[in-house]
Every structure is written in structure tokens, then in C-alpha cells.
Write a structure and sequence with these properties.
23 strands; UDP-N-acetylmuramoyl-L-alanine:D-glutamate ligase; 478 residues; alpha/beta; Protein-Tyrosine Phosphatase, Chain A; 16 helices; Udp-n-acetylmuramoylalanyl-d-glutamate--2,6- Diaminopimelate Ligase, Chain: A, domain 1
Length: 478
């Protein structure tokens, strides 16, 4: 027996169906099983299993044996799952002003900036991102940057029930391609930049770029696309949207711009211009790239109808972002914890810190296993260019041997035999080497893991925090 997607949607809105499931192992009596073809698994091979577990409705992309359940044929099961999940939750996202940010670097910082602006001017703001999710009543540690569509529906339902009227979400390229945000209308979406990353998944830079572009293709003509004018891919995003386009940039003519006055390791001072409204901002995060992040956050909030004065006040009140140029100081030694795990992100951090360093600049970094290998030598070149002392170590090696990863990193060094470059597989020992060698006015940048409080080695996830280790070692030095 078959039925249309619209008929199933009506059944769900009336509360006459069970849960929406994409995992056949979780199906119960009366549930809706959506068969999604993923990179590792194809839900269509689990249709009979879901029916055996009591599924009453099967949503699929190709005709199969659905005897004992009603079949709903759709063009894209992932889209269908997102729409059905939102409907089953009572379409909570429709009751909020939704904002999204995408790009290789800057998503988390911008999301926190938006969160700060809205919380300081309008009360509760929902947040979905790499570090955590804020539902308006509790803050939950995140498992991935953009949760799957079923989890998204549950989180947005909690936000609405907790009196949240604004929500900001980090949109990863994986999340966009897999339609995890489908069914949510965004008042504004921002694009930061695109650099080499995730090619293990997308296979080519063209596919990676197209994935980001899908977010802007989905915006309505009443939405706002906030685009980095200084990214070479900005025009690509602008050409793919019917939304109102607002460009942002530093020291350039744009809808939202900044004129930098001063910068030091504690932050920066600049004048922001939001469509003619000018005001001085003291940002508690260093670096031009963080000023650019602030402009993106301002654009998203402006697109959501938030007043310029509120935007500036919220930017100034943000104290820090976990694992994003997070500074620890002891005895004149500064340790910077940062999530930079691409060559472009590392370039931004080290290029910012180096001119502010009165002593030597130490760089401690590694690269993750089972991920894009092409960035390993590129990160080495950046570290070698800026670092007075470079310590190569493990990140999250996962199934790869750490020594092999380090070997691939070493291929990027122009002079790998230089005594300033050493390798130490044990990440804690690598950090210890840097801290024990550092002296007053030196700066140590520990890059790659940022806010993460674990290390993935083999099939185990062990507790490990760059920040905790640094604090303990600095404390041991008195």
C-alpha cells in the first residue's frame, strides 16, 4: 500500500503516527522509518528489519518490498526525514528567528558572538555548534558541529518550550549535504571562507564549495545572505542565492566594515560601520580574523532585525570563546589554546600572534588521523614560517599510527633537520617541553584541539584537555 508524502505529513501533524526513525534498530510499533542512503550505510537494506520491528510507514527513494507497512516514495529521503522530524516536534523552528553560519573557519566564534549579542539584548538565545548546544534551560556538550535532523528537531523543540526566540546554528558542510538543517527557514545565513579541509569526505574542493553553496541556495528572497567580501568565494555564494546580499570586510567598501585602530594579545579596538551606523568596538579577542568574525556576527544580527547599538554592546561583552585563541598567562609566559586544525586557520592564529610576541613563539601542533591528509604538509610550512620552536605531536590519531602522521607532516618542512623542529608523539610531553623551555615574554600556541577534552587513539576516546594540561604544568612551575 502506498501513500503520498503530503498524506503522511498530515498524519504526523495530527499526531496519528509514532516516532520518526532513520535507524531501523530504534523502530517500534507504529513508527515511521525513513530509509536514507548514507556514505557508509543504505537504509533501504534495512526496510524489512524496520517492518519486523513494527514500522507502519516506510519513506524511501526506490520501490521495494514494504509489505505490512505503507510506502511513501520520495526523491530525497534525507530532506523528507528533516521535514517529518520538524513536523513531529510541532514545527518549533517556525516559532523562532533562525540564523546559520558556514565556512571552513570562524563558525564557532561567530556563533558565540551572535549568542552574546542576543543574550545581552533580548534574553535567551539558542545555540547549536561545535562546542555545545544551549537550549535556553541547559547547556549540553556537543557530539558534532551540526546534529542530525532528528536531533535538530528535538533541540529546537526544547528551545521553543524554554522560551527561546532566536537560534544560531553552525552549519558544517557535512550537515548541509546531509540535509540536517532542511525544514528550517533561516532569516540570515553567513559565509566566512573556504580553505582546504574535509577532502576525505567531499573528495574535491569543488564539491566542498558546492556543499557550502547549498545553504544559500535554500534561502528565501526575504532572508539575508551575509558574505565575506574578502573571500575569493564570496561572489560564488552571492550568485547562488535569491536572498538579500550583505557584504562585510575590513578596510574595504562593504555594507558592514571595520577600520582597525589597535591590536594586542588581549584583543582589538576598531570602528564598525553597519550600513552607515558607526561605533567603536573593544573586542576581547585578538587578530584581524576575529574582527572579520565580528563583522559576520553583526551582519547576521542585523539581518535578524537587531538594532545596531545592541549589536555593538553584545560584541564588547563577549569575554572569550572556549578553545579559540584562549589565553592562559603565568610568570610572563602566555599559552594560547586554539582549535586551528587547517593551514589557513593556523596561518591566521600565528600571523596574529607573531607580531605581538616580544620573545620566542612556540608552536605545538599535530594533525588528526582518518581525515584530510593533504593539509598535513601545508600546516608544517605555516608552523615553520612563524615558529621559533616547533614541536610536532599527536592530535587525534584515531586508526592511524601517530608516527606515520608525523612523518607526513614532516614532508612539508623546508628544513626538517633544523634544530628548532622536534617531534614528540605524546601530546602531554610535547606541551611540557614547550612550557619548561619557555621564558618570560615567550608565547606558546597549542593548536588543533582547542575546546576538546578528549583524545581519540585507536578505538578509544581518552580524557585529554590542552587547557587542563597547560594549567597544571604552569602551576607546577609556580
Amino acid at each position: 500500500m502506498t501513500m503520498t508524502f503530503e498524506e503522511l505529513l498530515s498524519v504526523i501533524l495530527n499526531g496519528d503516527a509514532g516516532r520518526i526513525c532513520t535507524d531501523s534498530r530504534r523502530v517500534g510499533s507504529g513508527d515511521v522509518f525513513v530509509a536514507i542512503k548514507g556514505g557508509q550505510n543504505d537504509g533501504h537494506y534495512h526496510i524489512l528489519d524496520s517492518i519486523g520491528r513494527g514500522a507502519s510507514y516506510i519513506v524511501c527513494e526506490r520501490i521495494g518490498n514494504c509489505k505490512g507497512a505503507k510506502m511513501v516514495l520520495v526523491e530525497d529521503s534525507a530532506k523528507a526525514a528533516a521535514i517529518l522530524a520538524q513536523a513531529a516536534a510541532g514545527n518549533p523552528a517556525k516559532d523562532m528567528v533562525n540564523l546559520a553560519i558556514t565556512g571552513t573557519n570562524g563558525k564557532t566564534t561567530i556563533a558565540y558572538m551572535v549568542h552574546s549579542i542576543i543574550k545581552n539584548g533580548f534574553g535567551k538565545c539558542g545555540l547549536i555548534g561545535t562546542v555545545e548546544c544551549d537550549t535556553g534551560a541547559e547547556v549540553i556538550e556537543s557530539e558534532m558541529t551540526t546534529p542530525d535532523s532528528l536531533r535538530m528537531a528535538e533541540l529546537t523543540r526544547q528551545m521553543r518550550d524554554n522560551g527561546v526566540h532566536y537560534m544560531v546554528a553552525e552549519a558544517s558542510s557535512h550537515g548541509i549535504v546531509q540535509k540536517r538543517l532542511w525544514g528550517i527557514d533561516f532569516a540570515a545565513a553567513g559565509f566566512t571562507n573556504l580553505t582546504g579541509d574535509h577532502l576525505d569526505y567531499h573528495k574535491s574542493e569543488e564539491n566542498y564549495l558546492a556543499a557550502k553553496g547549498m545553504l544559500f541556495e535554500g534561502l528565501s528572497s526575504q532572508s539575508t545572505a551575509v558574505i565575506n567580501k574578502q573571500s575569493r568565494y564570496g561572489s560564488y555564494m552571492a550568485d547562488r542565492t535569491q536572498a538579500i546580499v550583505m557584504y562585510y570586510g575590513i578596510d574595504t567598501k562593504a555594507d558592514i566594515s571595520a577600520c582597525v585602530e589597535s591590536m594586542d594579545i588581549s584583543g582589538s579596538v576598531f570602528t564598525i560601520d553597519i550600513c552607515g551606523f558607526r561605533k567603536k568596538v573593544r573586542l576581547n579577542l585578538p587578530g584581524r580574523y576575529n574582527i572579520s568574525n565580528a563583522l559576520a556576527a553583526a551582519g547576521l544580527c542585523f539581518g535578524a532585525g537587531i538594532a545596531e547599538e545592541k549589536i555593538v554592546a553584545g560584541l564588547c561583552k563577549l569575554e572569550n570563546v572556549a578553545g579559540r585563541v584562549e589565553r592562559i598567562e603565568s610568570g610572563g609566559i602566555n599559552v594560547i589554546i586554539d582549535y586551528a586544525h587547517t593551514d589557513d586557520a593556523l596561518e591566521n592564529v600565528l600571523g596574529t600572534i607573531k607580531p605581538l610576541c616580544e620573545g620566542r613563539l612556540f608552536v605545538v601542533f599535530g594533525c588528526g588521523g582518518d581525515r584530510d591528509k593533504t593539509k598535513r604538509p601545508r600546516m608544517a610550512r605555516v608552523a615553520e614560517r612563524y615558529g621559533d620552536r616547533v614541536i610536532v605531536t599527536s592530535d587525534n590519531p584515531r586508526s592511524e599510527h601517530p608516527a606515520l602522521i608525523i612523518g607526513e607532516i614532516y614532508t612539508g618542512f623546508e628544513n626538517p633537520a633544523d634544530e628548532k623542529i622536534i617531534a614528540e608523539i605524546d601530546r602531554e610531553l610535547a606541551i611540557k617541553l614547550a612550557i619548561e623551555e619557555a621564558r618570560k615574554d615567550d608565547i606558546i600556541v597549542i593548536a588543533g584541539k582547542g575546546h576538546e577534552n578528549y583524545q581519540e587513539i585507536g578505538d578509544q576516546r581518552r580524557h585529554f584537555s590542552d587547557k587542563e594540561v597547560s594549567l597544571r604544568l604552569l602551576g607546577g612551575l609556580g
